[in-house]
Amino acid sequence: MSDHPKTPVVPVVPVEAFEPPYYVAVFTSVRSQEQDGYGETSARMEELVKDVPGYLGMEHAQTPGGLGITVGYFRDADALTRWRTDAEHRVAQRRGRAEWYESYTLHVAKVERSHGFTRAETRRDPRAD
C-alpha cells in the first residue's frame, strides 16, 4: 500500500443541455510545431470569455493525432459577436494564424434542439452478496 495520498479524481462531464435556442461555435484545429505562448494565451482566453454576457460554457477535446476541437456555447448571436470582436481575442486570433495553427475551421450554428443524459448512481443491494 502506498503512503502517497491519492490525487482526487475530477469528474468529466459535458456542458449541460441548455434551453434552445442558443448558439455554438465549433473550432476544429491542427496545431503547428510552434507553440510558444499558446498555453498562457489559451488560459487567458478561457478566463476572458467567461466575462462575456451570454456565455454559457465551453468544452475541449484533443485526439492523439493532434486534432483539437473546442465548442463554445452562447445564449444568443450578440454574445457570440461580442466574443468574436473582443480586442484581446482578436490579437490571439491573429497570433494563432501566424504561429500556432497549421489549419482550422470554425462552424457556427443555432441550436434548436438540446437534451442530455446522466446515469444515476445505482445502489447495490447488500442482500445480493
Automatic annotation (TrEMBL):
Broad class of enzyme this protein falls into: oxidoreductase
This protein's name: Antibiotic biosynthesis monooxygenase
One Pfam family of this chain: ABM
Entries under SUPFAM superfamilies matching the protein: Dimeric alpha+beta barrel
Native organism: Streptomyces chilikensis
Enzyme Commission code: 1.14.-.-
Secretion signal span: none
ABM domain span: 21-94
Molecular function per GO: monooxygenase activity
Highest taxon, organism lineage: Bacteria
Lineage: Bacteria, Bacillati, Actinomycetota, Actinomycetes, Kitasatosporales
Keywords: Monooxygenase, Oxidoreductase
